[in-house]
Design brief:
The chain is of the alpha+beta class. It has helices at about 5-10, 15-20; strands at about 5, 25-30, 35, 45, 50-55. It has a three-stranded antiparallel beta sheet with strand order 3-2-5, with no helix packed on it.
């Protein structure tokens, strides 16, 4: 069964609210591919996948 990234994110409401409100600040990878290069929140996910969510960071 397929689900979109947004549907999966909805399972963790607090996380969804934080990420959706600041989506451009996060790097989100599905099996190593940035969702911005795929279909964004509508990226379909099924089977055994790895989702990496990297919060905003600054450094120098």
């Amino acid at each position: 069964e397929k689900a979109t990234f947004e549907e999966i994110l909805s399972m963790v409401k607090d996380l969804k609210d934080i990420i959706i409100n600041n989506l451009d600040e996060y790097i989100i990878l599905i099996n190593g591919l940035n969702i911005k290069l795929l279909k964004g929140l509508e990226t379909e996910i099924s089977g055994d996948v790895t989702i990496d969510i990297f919060p905003p960071a600054a450094g120098g």
